[in-house]
Amino acid sequence: MDAAEAKALLRDANEDEPVFLPSSILDKITLVDIPDEVAIEVGLLKDGIIHLDWSGRLFKDQDQIKGEADYTWTRKYWYSAIGLEYYLDLVRRAVEVRNRVYGDVDITDYEDDGAYINMRFIVSTGHKNLGKAYQYVKSLCQELEETAENSVDEASKRLSEIASRLSGWGSQNLDTLVDAVEKASSNDERGRSLEELVSRLFETMPGFTVKDRIRTATEEIDITVLNDSNDPRFKRESAILLAECKNWSDKCGKNEFVLFKEKIDNRSNRCYLGFLISWNGFKDTVTKEMLRGSREHTLVVPITGKDIRAAIRNNNFADVLASCWEKAITT
């Protein structure tokens, strides 16, 4: 879509349906291009489905463009270490403080029906350019979420420490953990054993700091790694790395690969490298998917159980990780 097509969509729009525009053309749209009472949502149409970049809408209000942030979430799919009501209460308090100090935000709706919580607030941007208004709203929303996100991280870290201590984390050597991964009697035991094994291997990497099983509102990441490596291969990578473990009886396929890549993309542009560990290897569809996405910035590095066993046997996880990384970028 180009600017001319976007402006035509806006001219023909009505107040009952939002207009979906890609973020790439927002800078070319100004206040005069937006009719009164028309809402704009930012996202891309892929395979017949709109993928939103941000949950909310932009609209014209007299001499500026405003944004309405929409936090409509359900408890059913909330996996954070703190409850949904506590998380959104922290965001709401941040909005109220911002309103008192700057007066550029205003809560328009807050409702908790037991299953869903809905919160909306209006952001006055002061901008007449749609791209600048969008970036202002997104940046402000991220700022308002910071306290709640920090609380989630602290609670997740504390719960992870307690769970690790209760489950005997660190009491087994790596060879024993390999046996546990291969011989455990339950899926949960196999998964936890592989997660501990991989976490402890990443902890041996200079400059890597492992944070275990961080839960978010919509997904679960097995392992989060903070990257402060001086290794030239990883130093230029993102500050946050993700790793996900799959200890299945079958090989990992394309669908799991694509879902993990989406998790990486969902880290607010703070992450673009992830390690997908599949104990029993990968199907050919994964290699084809890697070739198809080889021009993209996001990189998923496949690691197999064979790779892990070799690293432990030869005490060279750093070399194995670098080899897997090099193979992924040349695929």
Automatic annotation (TrEMBL):
GO terms for molecular function: DNA binding; endonuclease activity. It comes from the Bacteria. Residues 191-292 form the Restriction endonuclease type IV Mrr domain. This is Restriction endonuclease type IV Mrr domain-containing protein. It comes from Nostoc punctiforme NIES-2108. Pfam families: Mrr_cat. Signal peptide: none annotated. One of its GO terms (biological process) is DNA restriction-modification system.
